[in-house]
Amino acid sequence: MNTGFSDELIRRLRAAQRVVVLTGAGISAESGVPTFRAPDGLWSKFKPEELANMEAFLRNPALVWQWYQHRRDILETVKPNPGHETLAEMERHYPDFIIYTQNVDGLHQRAGSRRVAELHGNISRCRCTTCLQIIQEIDRGQDGIPMCPCGGMARPDVVWFGEMLPEGMMEQGYRDVAAADVFMVIGTSGVVYPAASLATLASRSEAYCIEINTEPSALSDAMDAVLIGPSGEVLPALWREVAPQLHF
Ligand code: BJW
Ligand code: ZN
Predict the structure, then answer these.
(1) Is 120 an active-site residue?
(2) Does 86 score more than 70 pLDDT?
(3) Residue 153 has what DSSP assignment?
(4) What is the pLDDT of residues 7-36, one digit of tens each?
(5) Exposed, middle or buried, 14 (CB in 10 Å: 0-12/13-18/19+)?
(6) Ligand 2 centroid vs 37 CA: distance in angstroms?
(7) What is the CA 67 to chain-centroid distance, rounded?
(8) How far apart are CA 224 and CA 44, in angstroms?
(9) Nearest-angstrom CA–CA distance, 99 and 29
(10) What is the pLDDT of residues 133-177, one digit of tens each?
(11) Rounded to the nearest whole angstrom, what is the distance from the C-alpha of residue 123 to the centroid of ligand 2?
């Protein structure tokens, strides 16, 4: 099958030992998880400033929890798609392979990926706004807001605007990117920092940079190869061409 992938792209993927992947909401779109910035996306009705920051939460915790509970409900009905599954398969072939994901949906892990750094946390976990601990057992308090046993209000354990990413994770990401042979950025608009800086750093490094997206993103101009199409189709097609020639 001639899929139109360039010789250089296939050669780089076959020769690579160290691969770093940055994913965003687009990789989960074919599983049925809405993205953020699409016209019918998660932010088509509410602006991020109304939902994804601490001030919004303190102003109206019930509204914010309603939104997160809605998204948690969606996640119970979906499963990983061939894009997630191909990345899990790739991890089994490369000596050094890691996914930095902006997604909070846990779908990479459910597909079998083992080295996954969750830059923006995980929606299935709760954290206490008072004692800051991860909460295992939650009580539904007033207005359905989960409460910590300490009496504090629980929040989703995700990273909102203006908040720091998990300690040390970006620094490790920068080190991994600096050592990578191939960098792939998949299904992200590339407008949220510092996550997107992994891609800008990669574009200035030795790594061959590949993007997969249904449309050009803020990062496309800096990439060596831009593959336009749904990641659940492009990734398996790409891997079918690369994999038979790998010798580890
Ligand atoms: C497909 C597809 C298919 C569709 N196949 N593709 C430097 C410059 C400017 C601003 C800043 C900066 N540094 C920091 C900032 C501020 C801010 C920021 O980035 N703002 C910009 C938006 C202007 N960043 C922060 O605040 C970060 N923290 C921070 O910097 O801390 C330091 C600090 C602390 C205190 C004071 C000052 C600094 C934190 C950012 C946290 C982002 N959190 C969210 C919410 C997480 C929780 C939740 O899920 O509710 O993370 S925002 C939201 O955007 C979410 C996502 O992970 C993130 C990225 O979105 P993503 O994944 O790219 O989704 P979309 O919808 O945008 O794109 C989907 C893409 O998929 C599209 O391109 C489609 O085409 C494509 N697609 N179907 C392939 N089938
Ligand atoms: Zn607590």
Answers:
(1) yes
(2) yes
(3) B
(4) 999 999 999 999 999 999 999 999 999 999
(5) middle
(6) 33
(7) 19
(8) 32
(9) 17
(10) 998 767 776 677 899 999 999 999 999 999 999 999 999 999 999
(11) 18
Nearby residues for ligand 2 (ion, Cβ within 5 Å) = 128, 130-131, 148, 150, 152
Which is nearest to 151 in space by CA: 164, 162, 166, 135?
Answer: 135
Ligand 1, closest atom to CA 48?
Answer: 52
On the CB side of 95, CA atoms within 13 Å amount to 10
User: Ligand 1: which of 23, 33, 36, 155 to mutate, judged by most atoms within 8 Å of the beta carbon?
Assistant: 36
Over residues 186-193, mean pLDDT: 97
Residue 42 confidence (pLDDT): 75
Q: What is the CA radius of gyration of the chain?
A: 19
Tokens representing 70 are 């809605």
- Average predicted confidence (pLDDT) for the chain: 93
Question: In DSSP terms, which residues pair with 134 in a beta bridge?
Answer: 127
* Percent of the chain clearing pLDDT 90 (strictly above): 83
What distance in Å separates the CA atoms of residue 57 and residue 13, rounded to the nearest whole number?
Answer: 43
Instruction: Output the CA 55–ligand 2 centroid distance in Å.
Output: 19
**Whose atoms come closest to the Cα of 146: which ligand?**
2
